[in-house]
Design brief:
Elements: H1 18-29, H2 34-38, H3 42-59, H4 69-90, H5 101-111, H6 113-148, H7 153-173, H8 178-194, H9 196-199, H10 203-213, H11 222-225, H12 231-249, H13 254-265, H14 270-273, H15 275-289, H16 295-313, H17 320-347, H18 351-364, H19 368-385, E1 402-409, E2 414-419, E3 424-428, E4 437-438, H20 439-443, E5 459-464, E6 467-475, E7 484-490, E8 496-501, E9 503-504
Helix pairs in contact: 1-4, 1-5, 3-4, 6-7, 6-8, 7-8, 10-12, 12-13, 12-15, 13-16, 15-16, 15-17, 16-17, 17-18, 17-19, 18-19
């Protein structure tokens, strides 16, 4: 009996089958490692499962930025290597099941739908994640606007600007997204929130927010804003007028700025047409106040109105002529009201101020008031040296039956001021042969100025009525010399002489 040949250690290799190799390669491309399963290469199949699991952990949940490029590239390389290696290994290796290569090839083609479907599903998931991320940005911007509306505009300006930047980015760079579709509604809320002070009647507080809203078209085109682009205009014009009018009636200074902005920005608006009448009304009120309890305040107000109305008239427009006319009335009334102001200052004992006011008035005015203003200015100057002289307001009376002669025993020119029943002033030249007396001279027994019969003293005689007259002798052109004063009680039947002289003490 012939010997039996030994059994082979393993089945002989299958003949090469390209169709089988292609089937295994396709099955490995599915990412499930099924090609290796059919070849009973369990370790390599597990490696494919691990690679797919890692990719799913990285990719899920779907992120707006998608799968990191490195992870995706690495996974694709693993699949290609698995497909190539599986095809090479299956070229001479029989399959466990299905045994026929065409069936395995058909299964591989069918399972390619797994990565393809997964890719399509992930694309949709990623798009939804992008939409949700954009909606999240929109909602955060909305929350910022809502929170900013609880605070002042100055404190919230940066937050408003940040929210606007988000709205712009969504509308411009993410057009078609669900978030971008909601931007128009959000902008309307944005405008209402920023402009809330106007709706609440806070016109002064609304000016800056409304000015800010007029700059929004610099960020978003007017085409995107629609009617919102012009939404602040009427509100800002109204706010500028109302805030300016409130400041004008309250003697504030901001009215010029607000009215100037109104006339320059909205010259043809309804509020702009009300500016000139408002200024004219303020002038009329100040004119009436000149005759009231505080004429000086009214005069100051009129002068302010004149200056500021002139400045406003330079803005041009239809109000220029009316404002110029109001400015002229304010100036004339202020100049005329200075007389009443000076009298009020005199009565209040503000003699320095009264002197200046009446001197300025007399320099501009004409008529009877000018003459009395000069006398009041003289009386105020005397009262600064002799306060008792200011108890009565000087009148325009002049002259009297009692002679009073004033001589100048001084080397300096002097001005003699007097007030009482009558008020006036005159100047005496200096005595050329006279000198300033020393303090020791004034203590000498028998000291009597203006008594040297050999000297020709400059002098002047005036007529005064009975009563108390206050004299002040004021040296001219000598800043270090102090005026001298005298109170004379004039009575009938006497002749009076006043003597002016200079005393030098310690070099002065």
């Amino acid at each position: 009996m012939p010997p039996v040949p030994p059994m082979p250690a393993s089945p002989p290799p299958a003949p090469p089958d390209p169709l089988r190799a292609a089937a295994v390669g396709l099955l490995n491309l599915s990412g499930l490692g099924l090609g290796y399963v059919l070849l009973r290469r369990w370790f390599l199949a597990a490696a494919c499962w691990v690679a797919t699991a890692v990719l799913l952990l990285v990719a899920l949940p779907a992120d707006p930025d998608g799968v990191p490029a490195g992870a995706l590239a690495g996974y694709v390389i693993v699949l290609l290597l698995a497909a190539a290696h599986g095809a090479f290994a299956a070229l001479r290796t029989r399959l466990t099941w299905p045994s026929r290569a065409p069936i395995a090839l058909a299964l591989g083609l069918l399972l390619l739908a797994v990565p393809t479907g997964g890719t399509l599903w992930y694309r949709d998931a990623r798009e939804e994640a992008v939409q949700q991320a954009l909606l999240g940005r929109l909602h955060r911007a909305d929350a910022k606007v809502t929170a900013a509306g609880r605070h002042s505009f100055a404190a919230s300006r940066a937050d408003y600007r940040d929210a606007l930047d988000v709205y712009r980015d969504l509308a411009v760079h993410h057009a078609g997204s669900r978030a971008a579709d909601q931007v128009p509604d959000r902008l309307r809320t944005y405008y209402r929130t920023v402009g809330a002070p106007y709706a609440g009647g806070d016109y002064c507080g609304a000016i800056e927010p409304l000015k800010y809203l007029r700059t929004v078209p610099d960020t978003l085109s007017e085409e995107r804003l629609g009617t919102l682009a012009r939404w602040p205009d009427d509100r800002l014009a109204t706010s500028l007028y109302e805030c300016g009018a409130a400041a004008l009636s309250g003697d504030g200074e901001e009215w010029v700025e607000h009215f100037g902005d109104l006339l320059g920005t909205f010259p043809d608006s309804g509020p702009a047409a009300k500016v000139a009448p408002a200024v004219e009304s303020a002038v009329a009120q100040a004119q009436k106040a000149v005759g009231g309890a505080a004429p000086c305040t009214a005069v100051e107000r009129l002068r302010e109105l004149n200056t500021r109305a002139v400045a406003l008239s330079n803005s041009g427009g239809r109000s220029a002529a009316q404002l110029t006319a109001s400015a002229g009335r304010a100036k004339r009334s202020g100049d005329e009201g200075a007389y009443d102001c000076g009298i009020d200052q005199y009565k209040d004992g503000q003699f320095t101020a009264a002197q200046k006011t009446m001197e300025d008035y007399a320099a501009r005015a004409t008529g009877a008031k000018r003459d009395r203003a000069r006398k009041i200015a003289i009386g105020a100057e005397v009262a600064q040296i002799v306060p008792a002289a200011g108890k009565k307001l000087p009148t325009t009376a002049s002259g009297g039956s009692i002679s009073v002669t004033v001589k100048n025993d001084s080397p300096d020119d002097i001005t003699v001021l007097y007030t009482g029943p009558v008020t006036g002033s005159f100047t005496l030249k200096g005595c050329g042969s006279c000198r300033a007396y020393t303090f020791t001279d004034t203590l000498s027994i028998g000291f009597k100025p203006c008594s040297d019969s050999g000297k020709n003293y400059p002098k002047r005689t005036i007529g005064l009525p009975v009563g108390t007259t206050y004299f002040v002798h004021k040296p001219n052109g000598t800043s270090s010399a102090k005026p001298a004063s005298d109170t004379a009680k004039i009575r009938s039947g006497y002749i009076y002489t006043e003597c002016a002289y200079t005393t030098r003490t310690f070099g002065y």
